[in-house]
Design brief:
α11 runs antiparallel to α12 and α11 runs parallel beside α13. The radius of gyration is 22 Å and the shape is globular. With about 300 residues, it is mainly alpha-helical. It contains 15 helices and two strands. The relative contact order is 0.08. Helix content is about 65%, strand content about 0%. A two-stranded antiparallel ribbon has the order 1-2.
């Protein structure tokens, strides 16, 4: 079959799948499993035609995971599924190819702290309307971060394809998720949870409850640590930071001058303070900061 015929087959199967009750899909009923297998087979053929057999064969895991996620994350009319999965697959395969190329060339041998700082500069430049793939912009960032232009260019290329795309995000582990989903880690605590939109609102409410019960003398320190951790986690999740910050500013725990200063510093872009920096400001050490946060998360009813 050619590309058009395969797309027609995929669309027809998807229409059948989305006509099933949500419970049938969630419970993995036999008719759903059969249609899912048929859909995956046609999508594999479509990928081979569009991207080539070699590239498709080297991205087997990415393709199957992308198909699986699409059946749970797609929320539009069934007629729009083919454009949706096509865009998702193109992005996923492009991203996999870039990641493989970067790993092969080993262009980035930078400490995590340094990479995070560069990503913040890239994010700030992007928000200011700068094209982060522009060599001149990369030179400015390289000068600011004291890195080579090659390192900045490689990270910018990777970052440009890993940011928010429509109503989905692609995290550092390569997984595409709904922008407003919550993705708990194994045996998740707040410390290990990606929080977005409605889930973030719920988390902030619970944090405020636990924060209100904390000792007054520790609140400035605790407020700064919590605010910093949430900003780092949300940025790592590639969240819509403008919306997230608006929610943070409305939270009671973030109304301290320490928290407001950290939020303002983040919004300026560029180098951002670390958890260790906050600990030093309060005459504590990094170990104390980690322990303080860990104990606080336990008090939050977020399971």
């Amino acid at each position: 079959m050619d590309k058009q015929q395969l797309e027609e087959h995929i669309q027809a199967t998807a229409t059948e799948i989305f006509s099933l009750a949500e419970t049938a899909r969630r419970d993995g009923r036999e008719d759903f499993k059969s249609l899912k297998t048929k859909l995956a087979a046609d999508i594999w053929k479509w990928c081979a035609v569009v991207f080539g057999s070699e590239r498709t064969g080297n991205a087997g895991v990415e393709i199957m995971e992308c198909i699986k996620r699409s059946l749970s994350s797609f929320k539009g009319e069934a007629a729009g599924y083919m454009p949706y999965i096509a865009t998702a697959l193109k992005t996923e395969l492009w991203r996999a190819a870039v990641k493989a190329a970067l790993e092969e060339r080993c262009l980035i041998h930078l400490p995590d702290k340094k990479q995070r700082m560069i990503k913040q500069f890239l994010h700030f430049a992007k928000r200011c309307g700068k094209d982060i793939t522009n060599p001149n912009v990369q030179k400015l960032i390289a000068k600011e971060c004291l890195c080579t232009v090659e390192e900045i260019a490689a990270l910018a290329q990777y970052y440009a394809r890993s940011f928010v795309r429509g109503d989905t995000i692609v995290s550092d582990d390569g997984e595409e998720r709904s922008l407003w989903d919550v993705v708990p880690a194994k045996d998740a605590t707040l410390e290990e949870t990606v929080m977005l939109k409605t889930e973030l609102e719920r988390c902030l409410t619970e944090i405020d409850k636990a924060f209100a019960a904390a000792q007054e003398r520790t609140k400035p320190y605790l407020s700064a640590l919590i605010t910093h951790r949430l900003l780092v986690k949300l940025e790592s999740a590639q969240a819509d930071m403008d919306n997230a910050i608006a929610l943070l500013r409305a939270a009671s725990f973030a109304k301290t001058k320490e928290a407001q200063k950290i939020i303002a510093e983040y919004q300026k872009g560029g180098a951002f303070c670390t958890q260790e920096d906050i600990a030093k400001h309060f005459d504590r050490d990094k170990t104390d900061a980690s322990r303080t946060l860990k104990n606080f998360w336990k008090k939050c009813q977020l399971v």
